[in-house]
TrEMBL record:
GO terms for molecular function: thiamine triphosphate phosphatase activity. It comes from Homo sapiens (Human). Residues 6-93 form the CYTH domain. Transmembrane segments: none annotated. This is Thiamine triphosphatase.
Length: 140
């Protein structure tokens, strides 16, 4: 049976004197890692609202952190970390689910078709944004 790796991360705020106490216990700084992340989202912050975190780590590439398995118990949160660009794009750009039309629209279509037609004409006369052919347009 193949075994995978599990990363356990726990965040804490060290109190005053923590570094000195660690040194008293024999701890030393082995190495320091510095990196720069750039986070991306939509103007409406839709990724953040969905608990998705899209970042590009300097010299490392893209990463998307999104909620993992539901129902995880304990003082932790489980996230999937996607690093393959096709997987990230698939996660962020799955086909939009069709939604039911608004009740008012259905009412106009059924009982006031003239008003519905006028509404369509008014909306079609407004300036529409141009569509993009860029396959990565959904990454903002």
């Amino acid at each position: 049976m193949a075994q995978g790796l599990i990363e356990v991360e726990r965040k804490f705020l060290p109190g005053p004197g923590t570094e000195e106490r660690l040194q008293e216990l024999g701890g030393t700084l082995e190495y320091r890692v510095t990196f720069r992340d750039t986070y991306y989202d939509t103007p409406e912050l839709s990724l953040m609202q969905a608990d998705h975190w899209l970042r590009r780590r300097e010299d490392s590439g893209w990463e998307l952190k999104c909620p993992g398995a539901a129902g995880v118990l304990g003082p932790h949160t489980e996230y999937k970390e996607l690093t393959a660009e096709p997987t990230i794009v698939a996660q962020l750009c799955v086909p939009a689910q069709e939604t039911a039309p608004a009740k008012l629209i259905v009412y106009l279509q059924r009982f006031r078709p003239q008003d519905y037609q006028r509404l369509l004409e008014v909306n079609s006369s407004r300036e529409r944004p141009q569509e993009t052919e860029d396959p990565d347009h959904c990454l903002g």
